[in-house]
Amino acid sequence: MLKILGRKNSSNVQKVLWCCEEMGLAYAREDIGGPFGKNRDPAYLALNPNGLIPTIDDDGFILWESNAVIRYLAAKHGRAGLWPADSKIRADADRWMDWQLTTAGPPMGTLFVQHVRTPEDKRDAKAIADARLRAIEAWTILDAHLGRRPFVAGEGFTTGDIPLGIMVYRWFNIPIERPELPNLKSWYARLAGRAPYQKIVMQPLT
User: Residues with Cβ < 8 Å from 90, sequence gap 6 or more?
Assistant: First the structure.
């Protein structure tokens, strides 16, 4: 059985769990990282020398880096339209997965850590303000893109929606002032209607 190593409130672990739920894959998960520790233990570092989560063990095949894991699982199992046969649609999905890592993810990470995991009296107001502006710039780009299509890679839900879908839940649930981005909001509503998203992503932020 597929083993997923990582705590369930990690955004990167949630990517993999959501992907599995979309395809109906059976898996076992072990709490690693954060308050559970073990990610710096020699046994874990032998699997993932970065000491980060998630790591998967698929019948002896070890893989880390969450977006790579999503691509691997979707390509292997190829169900639910996650891994399109059309190479151009697949490349489009890949582009938005990478864009999450380089553009949308960093400011959202700052906002999440500052608002959710940092006591109010220790928060960095400038870091929050700067991250909010950078996040608005990123979400405005995606909002314009989504004005032409229901999902990030076109007409259907693909791997491209997963990393950004994790981030957009945080965007709409962190207590900050947000501009009206109607296409982004509609896409978020479409994701929120999916049972796997409700199960894995739509949980209290911790």
Answer: 83, 84, 153, 158
Which residues have CB under 8 Å from 121's CB, separation 6+? none
User: Does domain 2-77 sit in CATH 3.40.30.10?
Assistant: yes
Residue 194 contacts residue 184 (beta carbons within 8 Å): no
Q: Rounded to an integer, what distance in angstroms lies between the CA atom of residue 12 and that of residue 133?
A: 23
Q: For 187-206, what is each residue's pLDDT tens digit?
A: 999 999 999 999 999 999 99
Q: Do domains 2-77 and 87-197 have the same CATH topology?
A: no
Domain residue spans of the chain: 2-77, 87-197
CATH 1.20.1050.10 matches 87-197: yes
Distances (CA, A) of 46 to 33, 55, 58, 66, 172: 15, 11, 16, 18, 37
CA 34 distance to own-chain centroid? 17
Question: pLDDT per residue over 15-30, tens digit each?
Answer: 999 999 999 999 999 9
Q: Which residues of the chain have pLDDT under 50?
A: none
> What pTM value is reported for the model?
0.96
* Cβ atoms of residues 165 and 70 within 8 Å: no
